[in-house]
Amino acid sequence: MSSVSPIQIPSRLPLLLTHEGVLLPGSTMRTSVDSARNLQLVRSRLLKGTSLQSTILGVIPNTPDPASDAQDLPPLHRIGTAALAVQVVGSNWPKPHYTLLITGLCRFQIVQVLKEKPYPIAEVEQLDRLEEFPNTCKMREELGELSEQFYKYAVQVIAIRPIRRITHISGTLEDEDEDEDNDDIVMLEKKIRTSSMPEQAHKVCVKEIKRLKKMPQSMPEYALTRNYLELMVELPWNKSTTDRLDIRAARILLDNDHYAMEKLKKRVLEYLAVRQLKNNLKGPILCFVGPPGVGKTSVGRSVAKTLGREFHRIALGGVCDQSDIRGHRRTYVGSMPGRIINGLKTVGVNNPVFLLDEVDKLGKSLQGDPAAALLEVLDPEQNHNFTDHYLNVAFDLSQVLFIATANTTATIPAALLDRMEIIQVPGYTQEEKIEIAHRHLIPKQLEQHGLTPQQIQIPQVTTLDIITRYTREAGVRSLDRKLGAICRAVAVKVAEGQHKEAKLDRSDVTEREGCREHILEDEKPESISDTTDLALPPEMPILIDFHALKDILGPPMYEMEVSQRLSQPGVAIGLAWTPLGGEIMFVEASRMDGEGQLTLTGQLGDVMKESAHLAISWLRSNAKKYQLTNAFGSFDLLDNTDIHLHFPAGAVTKDGPSAGVTIVTCLASLFSGRLVRSDVAMTGEITLRGLVLPVGGIKDKVLAAHRAGLKQVIIPRRNEKDLEGIPGNVRQDLSFVTASCLDEVLNAAFDGGFTVKTRPGLLNSKL
Fold first, then answer.
1. Which pLDDT band, with edges at 50, 70 and 90, does 639 fall under?
2. Mean pLDDT of the 334-342 span
3. pLDDT of 107-117, one tens digit each?
């Protein structure tokens, strides 16, 4: 084989002075030509030259000095790069200007500058060695002889001993002929051949791999195509996990992980039972709707654990681009698949449990409507053929178990809501919160803070104090944070006690033991409030009582103020539903001399304003019946009288028809001068004829009344069926009055019924 010969650059090179960076050998750069010397160089050497050597330039980096004379040659760097001018682009208007595309060849060193004008020329010494490939034809002849000899001996070996080693040798030879990148392409092609993707996806991959082989690596599309193929082979087209279908074990697991939530757990067990009887059951689309902190997300994780499936959570809050769901088309720079396909790639199976969190908080923008994009994902009749814009081939989502969570259904589009099976997850009762705290929250907080039950005790009565006086919520998140604050305070006491014990010597230990015997005489665990000023380490376990709560959490945040608020006429308690759960709501009314105007305050919506006008109209039309008069003794309640209705918590927007009965009761109290019972709350829509219509959110509203310590709840008669979902202990603590008309509401809201005032010629009567 012949030896290679070096390439020599000319010993004299024209110098191109550039201020646009350093050109390295093997790299390409565009540079502007605007100085007089460089313009002369381009015109003389590049535009008029015809030989190859006339296009080789010496490129010297130069930093222009404003203080130097433009006629003088600036100081030159000794090292430069010989470059080949590949392209010249320029114009003469408005002034001569050229742009060069140059490719670096090798480095050189300036020996001496031979000429400075009209452009510099220097004698140079080549520093790098450039080699050209040997004669290809001659090398091929020499390799041909070796190939024939190798083939001859290889055939003889196979004929004598047909061993499997020849297969490995062939593979090794094939690998030696390809470079590293080609090895990756070969491996990618092999993965495509051995993958279990559908026929349509396989055809697309084969077509793309052929394009990739013909594509230069420098093209931007090369990386995009390669990333696309790598995603295609990584997707779990036919890979799935086997469901655990033991109903008894699933029931035990759900009961251990979650207290209460009977309706939700029942639905999961129903799915397991049907799945056990029918293997090809399509995954249902469940939507857990309830206030924050009731365990919607954790239930989804438990469902995956029960089934033995992979779990993946997709947060949809604030998403306003449909490409987050369907992906970007590959024509865009930085395109990527949507969250559904990315989630499948992450879990590695095609039948995971996908939790679509906060589906009620999807947005909408110029980039599309993600809620509309979810219609295809959450439709069991369509999602077996889901097409992501990035993949551009169908993927089967029918085996995915989708679980969505939301705080309210009001903001979910009707078409999307129709795709899902709604399961209400209401708030917890006080008894349920106590059980959840002692079963799950307290053990979790002890573990997170490095404490043991031998160091801290939180009795159930203390937990009840935290629930009633320091939190007011449907879920248990605030309760969990309060328990964490208690554990941190105890951790400080435990750490200080260990430090004090380490500093005590034996005599101190003896004295301390005597003190401990004296302290333990009452045989009760010590409260943290009792150990604040002790010099000795606190006695274990530390008991958290009400005094300790006050020391750690401060004064109670919520006190029962119901009786104080209803100490004068014109106040009634209503029940409201919010996405955060049920709440009690005070309605206050006052009257004053005026022109018969009705003023409403408290950030009320249009529906609630209409309810207020309905209430005052019904009372005016029935004023004689109930003997209601204004301050001037007139049955026209607005005659020379203004009425002001206020709904406290003015910073919170309020709307809905369910406050109608409360407004009527509040105004009846105002004009009759009688107090509404302080242990009664009510909800219901009214009509102009005095009928009471059904409303929603009964369970959450009843739980709110129970949390507030009320004893009686007035609801519409047509909502009586909703009482079946109320926990038994709550039904025992509360009495319920079902009303079909306002007469029944008023009779239940006042002690002794709503008795009219005694007027001349009239007898007392009870309506």
1. confident
2. 91
3. 999 999 998 88
Instruction: Let me know: does 88 contact 98? Beta carbons within 8 Å.
Output: yes
Q: What is the mean pLDDT of residues 336-340?
A: 93
Instruction: Give the pLDDT band (50/70/90) at residue 765.
Output: very low
- State the catalytic residue, choosing from 296, 493, 699, 701: 701
Given a cut of 80, is residue 200 above it in pLDDT? Answer: yes
Q: Is 701 a catalytic residue?
A: yes
Q: Most distant CA pair in the chain: distance in Å?
A: 136
Q: Which tokens belong to 230?
A: 């790598």
The per-residue pLDDT for 394 is 93
**Does residue 4 have a pLDDT over 50?**
no
> Known catalytic residue: 634?
no
CA–CA distance, 384 with 376 (Å, rounded to integer): 9
Contact 702, 734 (CB under 8 A): yes
Nearest-CA neighbor of 713 among 704, 705, 721?
Answer: 705
Residue 406 to residue 560: CA distance in whole angstroms = 31
Q: If DSSP states are collapsed to H, E and C, what string results for 57-86?
A: EEEEECCCCCCCCCCCCCCCCCEEEEEEEE
Q: How far apart are CA 435 and CA 636, in angstroms?
A: 55
Predicted pLDDT at 504 = 54
In our burial notation (b when 16+ CB lie closer than 10 A, e otherwise), range 466-482 reads: bbbbbbbbbbbebbbeb
The alpha carbons of the chain give a radius of gyration, in whole angstroms, of 42
Nearest of 628, 704, 618, 735 to residue 672 by alpha carbon: 628
Residue type present at position 591:
R
Burial class (CB in 10 A: 0-12, 13-18, 19+), 215: middle
Which of 46-50, 172-176, 384-388 comes out lowest in average pLDDT? 172-176
Whole-angstrom Cα distance, residue 672 to residue 589?
Answer: 12
* pLDDT at res. 750: 92
What pairing do the DSSP bridges indicate for beta strands 456-457 and 285-289?
unpaired
pLDDT of 215 over the 50 cut: yes
**Rounded Cα gap, residues 239 and 234, in angstroms:** 11
Task: Write the CA distances from 395 to 100, 230, 284, 350, 684, integer angstroms.
Answer: 50, 16, 18, 9, 49
Backbone φ and ψ for 608, nearest 5 degrees, come out as: -70, -35
Q: Residues 18-56: pLDDT tens digits?
A: 887 888 888 888 888 888 888 888 888 887 765 656 688
DSSP string, 642-687: EEEEE-S-TTS-B--STTHHHHHHHHHHHHHT-PPPTTEEE--EE-
Residues 6+ apart with CB under 8 A from 102: 16, 23, 28, 29, 30, 31, 57, 59, 83, 84, 85, 86
Q: Which of 249, 347, 236 is nearest to 302 (CA)?
A: 249
Average pLDDT (454-471) is 92
CA distances (Å), origin 717, targets 170, 722, 736, 737:
86, 10, 10, 8
8 Å CB contact between 84 and 27: no
377 closest CA partner among 363, 388, 392, 366: 388
Q: Where are the alpha helices (DSSP H) in 352-441?
A: 370-377, 414-419, 430-436
Q: Outline where DSSP puts E strands in 92-159.
A: 97-115, 121-126, 130-131
Considering the candidates 658, 669, 672, 699, report the single residue annotated as catalytic. 658
Task: Tell me the CA distances in angstroms from 754 to 250, 463, 585, 589, 630, one per residue in order.
Answer: 54, 40, 22, 18, 17
Token pair of 455 as six digits:
């160091």
What is the per-residue pLDDT for 763? 35
- pTM here is 0.66
User: Model confidence at 553, in pLDDT bands (50, 70, 90)?
Assistant: very high
